[in-house]
Amino acid sequence: MQAEILSRTDAVVCHGGYGSIRAALHHGVPVVSIPLGNADDPTRLPGLEAMGAGIVLRDTGSVPGPDLGGRAACPHGTGLP
Questions:
Q1: What is the mean pLDDT of the chain?
Q2: Does any domain span residue 19?
Q3: Which residues contact 76 (CB under 8 A, 6 or more apart)?
Q4: Alpha carbon 3 to its chain's center
Q5: Residue 11 lies inside a defined structural domain of this protein
Q6: Which of 2, 18, 56, 78 ranks highest by number of CB atoms within 10 Å?
């Protein structure tokens, strides 16, 4: 099911965990990572940016909460919120 969803997704928005990044890279989907403080390994996120495979939002206090309309978090055509 994960492969089916990722094949129809424009981007993955996640906390930057190993599994999420690995799956996104495997499917060629860019990542928007919002690390959860000390809970995430900080060594993998600079590599994500260096490869051009995603971006890391480090100062989330200054990032507005846009209405993505489900385009980034949900695959096209699923009707998920």
A1: 75
A2: yes
A3: 8, 9, 10
A4: 15
A5: yes
A6: 56
For residue 72, is it within any domain? no
Mind giving me the DSSP string for 11-79? Answer: -EEE---HHHHHHHHHHT--EEE---GGGS-TTHHHHHHHTTSEEE---GGGS-----TTTTTS-TTS-
> How many C-beta neighbours within 10 Å does residue 21 have?
21
Number of structural domains found in the chain: 1
Question: How many whole angstroms separate alpha carbon 36 and alpha carbon 25?
Answer: 20
pTM, 2 dp: 0.67
Parent domain of 51: 2-62
Gap between the Cα atoms of 77 and 81, Å rounded = 11
